[in-house]
Structures are given as C-alpha cells and as structure tokens.
Amino acid sequence: MGSHLVEALLAQGYQVRCLVRPTSDVSFIAGLPVDLAYGDLGGATGLEEACRDVLAVFHLAGATRALDAQTLFEVNEQGTATLLEVCGRASPDLKRFVYLSSLAAGGPSTGTMPIDETWPERPVSVYGASKLAGEERVRAYAGRLPVVILRPAPVYGPRDRDILTYFRLVGRGLSLVPGGKPRRVSLIYVSDVVQLALRVLEDDRSVGQTYFACDGKAHDLDAVLECIALVLGRRTVRAAVPMRMLEGIAALGAASARLLKRPILLNRDKLREMRHPCWLCDSSKAQRELGFAALVDLHSGIARTAEWYRQEGWL
Questions:
Q1: What is the mean pLDDT of residues 158-184?
Q2: Under a CB-based contact definition with an 8 Å cutoff, are residues 292 and 195 in contact?
Q3: What long-range pairs does 270-275 form, CB within 8 A, spacing at least 24?
Q4: Residue 253 in this model has a pLDDT that exceeds 80
Q5: Rounded to whole angstroms, how far apart are CA atoms 183 and 277?
Q6: In what order do the strands lie in the sheet with 56-59?
Q7: Which residue from 46, 60, 207, 258 could staple onto 146, CB 3.0 to 4.6 Å apart?
Q8: How far apart are CA 163 and CA 211, in angstroms?
Q9: Long-range contacts from 141-146, C-beta under 8 angstroms, 24+ separation
C-alpha cells in the first residue's frame, strides 16, 4: 500500500518523505520525486530526522508474519510506540498521525454479521493481537497527537504478493478452499484504502477515531476464486483442503522457516485465523462521517491486479 499512497499524495501536490531501511526494496517508488530517509522503527538512527517538521505521518510499516511472537510485538507494538514518541518531539505541529492497523485486530465476525467499531476486539492470532497492541499505543497518545486508526479488510491489488498465491494456483487450474466449508470475507482494493487515508488526512472529524475499511460486500471465497478464474480464462477444479492437512503443512513450514530463518505465508498463526470462516467488517462509519465509498468492485479489482501481474511477469 505504501507506494500507492506515495503516488496519490504526490498527485495531490504533497511533498513526501519515505522512511526506508538500507535493505528495503524501493523499486516501486524509484524515480518518484520523494525524499528517502534511512532508519527503522527501532529508533536508533534516522527516525527523528525522518519525522522532523512534517505535516502528517502515515504509519504503514509492520510485520505480518515473523519467526516468533516476540518479533511481531517488537515491530507492531513497540515500533509504533517509538514512532509516536519521536513524532511528539520532532513534529510539534503535526496535523495527523495515521496508523494502518488490520481487521485482524478486531477479530473474526460472528456468523454473517459484520463487525464495526463498536464491537469488542477479540483477535485470534498473535499478529492480530500485536496490531491491537499497536492501536492501544496510538490511543494512549490521543491527547497529545491528532491520531487516526484505519482497520482495512484484506487489501489486494497490484504489487501485492500475498494474493498472488491464489492467482498462481488458479492459473494452474486449482481452486483451494481451506477446510472445505463456506468462507466469507470482506476485501478492499488498494486504491480505495488510499482514498480513505487521504480523507482522514484532510478531514478533522477523523481525529481520535477508528475506521474499518472494506468494499461493502460479503464475498464468498468460492466466488472470489471463480472471479480470478474468469479473469485468467481458466477452468479450475475445486478442492477442499482439510484443516488437519493444513496443520501438517504449517508444521513443516515452521521447521523450514527456522532453518531458512525466514517466515513463510502459511504458518501456525495464519492457521489460527483460517479456523474462523467469517471475516466481515462494516465501513458505514467512514461512509457516514467522511463520505467514504469504495469505488472498485471485485471484478474490476481482480482484472486490474491480474493485468499488472501479467505485465510484470509475476503470472
């Protein structure tokens, strides 16, 4: 999402400074008129210089998977706390601090009823708990900084590697459904999340608020896979993958991750989320207060994503 947000901010006439690590892949912002500030959320070097005298901070950095729970909390909670502290010192005239959280912080929905900002949080994964802990750090600064929390549903679109796995499987003729039972999910196309991020930047009513973001539809996973197949022009075989088989794959993956010292997509933490068949949220609050409305429907979003994957040789 970061590179898409950078492009949108530049299009609106903002000057942009990007905090990057020396090892970061900056290919998606290469050639753009941005300042690169080298540092990390540990705060040892570069962070204060990156945050000095800025109008707004969009905190999109985070870990979605790691080799251990401690790393997730170090990045998603403690890293957020460090950034807030530095912003309080380096940017006294800050207009907005926007924290990109996740639906995982809120937790799964009950049955077919989507959750909204009034529901009590109940994350079921370590990742979700670490993002919620980051949210709590942000809320603790509400009296000192103009903070906003965004909780998007799973974000898809060009440049995303997680949903790429589904595209590649469908491209091979496979529609894999975890557990075999109906699964319903909220989704949002990347440009729509960016649209909401710009709205919270420019609308003072957003200060101190939390907003879910989705396209307003409850998507059946089978229908999502069918949409990908239609866009790719593939006929697929639907295969239900038993949870016990996924547990075995996750266990093997954990062993290989330790050997390679690199986290993998399907791990035990992800499996905790997959055990819940409904992940639905409601973005009515953002619509009501900020005039937000998702502009990209599922078919258009999938088509745009597939086109980008093909152009870049990812498919």
A1: 90
A2: yes
A3: 270/65, 270/125, 270/127, 271/243, 271/246, 271/247, 272/124, 272/125, 272/126, 273/104, 273/108, 273/124, 273/125, 273/127, 273/128, 274/178, 274/179, 274/243, 274/246, 275/124, 275/179, 275/243
A4: no
A5: 5
A6: 56-59, 96-100, 147-152, 210-213
A7: 207
A8: 23
A9: 141/84, 141/88, 141/97, 142/208, 144/88, 145/84, 145/87, 145/88, 145/94, 145/97, 146/94, 146/95, 146/96, 146/97, 146/207, 146/208
Q: Which residue has the tokens 């068949």?
A: 277
Contacts of 200 (CB under 8 A, 6+ apart): 96, 98, 148, 150, 206, 209, 211, 290
Cα of 10 vs its chain's centroid, Å: 21
DSSP label of 153: P
> How far is 33 from 69, CA to CA, in rounded Å?
37
Nearest Cα residue to 234 out of 176, 158, 172: 172
106 C-beta neighbours (distance < 10 Å), count:
25
Q: Is the pLDDT of residue 184 over 70?
A: yes
- Report whether 26 contacts 36 (CB < 8 A): yes
Query: What does the pLDDT look like over 16-65, one tens digit per residue?
Result: 999 998 888 899 999 999 999 998 888 667 898 899 989 999 999 988 88
* Whole-angstrom distance, CA of residue 154 vs CA of residue 184: 12
What is the fold of 2-311? Answer: Rossmann fold (3.40.50)
d(CA 107, CA 278): 10
Residue of 51, 121, 128 lying closest to 90 (CA atoms) = 51
CA atoms of 186 and 282, how far apart (whole Å): 9
- Write down how long the chain is: 315
**Contact in structure between 222 and 180 (CB atoms under 8 Å):** no
Q: Which of 101, 120, 108 is nearest to 218 (CA)?
A: 108
